[in-house]
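My current task is to audit a protein record that another person submitted. My question to you is simply how this chain folds and whether the tokens agree. This is what I was given:
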Amino acid sequence: MSVSLITLSGFLYLLYYVIYTDVHSIMTWFLLSAAFLPINILIVTFIIEGIISARDKRLMLKKLNMVIGVFYSEVGTVLLKLLTPYNTNSLQSGGDLDFNSGWTRREYDNAVNIVKNYDYKIESRAGDLTDLKVFLGEKRDFLLRLLENPNLLEHETFTDLLWAVFHLNDELAHRKSLTGLHNADYNHISNDIKRAYTLLLTEWLSYMSHLKSDYPYLYSLAVRTNPFDPDASPEIKE
């Protein structure tokens, strides 16, 4: 293709010379075109393609947030409830996750920072590991289908979350019994729970912020079913 285009350009220049025999005009237009080429590259490559790329990325992230929504609907919200008892230094006591319809993006950003820097005290013996093992085993096929979505490659933190949940599932599934384990084994599982729980909370808050700005009707239900609100109820009481 490149050779063909260059050959065509040379033929047209030659044709112009045969008709007009004006080398000066040919050189003038050639230099003018060459001088405009960097500006043309700037406009087409960096500005126009940048605008198109940003628009495509917004559309892709919108679709990806739909996938994240399905994840929390099918797995994430229940998993938050199952993993919270393992955190003996509860976030719930400070009300940091008790969001409401009036929360702004800044408040969500602050909550994300709190979650990322929180001093978690995860104890794998504080909850029922067997129930956790059964739940994750039932959701394994669903999680595998999520990983087949190519758009996930553009959302590194959510992909990390899925892998953390998969790893926790594998650690539990490969043990015939989850009682009477060695302390080192319980500590290892505690670290796996901590990794999954931290990522799960971070992505959950980011997703809630997305719902608040783009889908207020879905956000209304999320507020009423907040797993960190002890009085949460899907029923509208006011």
In short: Residues 75 and 138 are 10 Å apart (CA to CA). The helical segments are 2-20, 23-83, 105-116, 129-138, 140-147, 156-173, 183-214, 216-224. DSSP finds eight helices and no strands in the chain. The chain has two domains: 2-50, 59-224.
